[in-house]
Amino acid sequence: MNLLSQKNVAEFVGVVAIVASLIFVGLQLRQSQEIALAEGFSMMFSTQIEVNNSIKEYVGLWRRGTAGEELSEDEAAVFGILVAQVNVSAVMASVHLRQIGGDDGAEFTRLGFASFLYQNPGARKVWLDRERNLSKYRSALIDDYSGHAWVDGIQSYLAKLDQKNIPLEKHSYVDW
User: Which residues contact 15 (CB under 8 A, 6 or more apart)?
Assistant: First the structure.
């Protein structure tokens, strides 16, 4: 084998090694992404389970609160926390779904949460009151505050549901 032939073989082996290492890095990146997605789903489902357990602990209060019945101050405080937990869980799901699948999954979550609020007038009132209060302080702290995409989207869907005047179900539940 002459020197030129050895050089060609060495270059070929070098190119094959580079291509193989790039394929390996690509596979590692794909595996890392799949692990991150699985961890995100696990965290999302864990949050949902925690929210459901909180609601289960106060199921009577939850049912009365979502129906819009009168609550004591202490009950209203607990119910407000439960509604906030449901909101945070839905926001987290929306953010995660946006990261992995774009806007469709996130929008589906927003539609579901708006439907939940529509079906549960007590939760809707607490959520709207909370968001109005938070918006007041956000506006005071941020000069060009023009709203929050999550809140604005939910309010838009609620307005559409109000226009359609769909009858409410007789039971209250968490479904978004």
Answer: none
What token pair was written down for 48? 């949902």
**Can you give the pTM of this predicted structure?**
0.74
CA distance 145 to 166: 33
Which amino acid is residue 163, in one-letter code?
A: Q
Residue 3, domain member (yes or no): no
Is there a contact between 83 and 127 (Cβ–Cβ < 8 Å)?
yes
Within a domain: 1: no
**2 falls within a domain:** no
* DSSP assignment string, 101-157: H-HHHHHHHHHHHHHHHHH-HHHHHHHHHHHHHHHHHHHHH-TT----HHHHHHHHH
pLDDT in tens, 61-101: 999 999 899 999 999 999 999 999 999 988 888 888 777 76
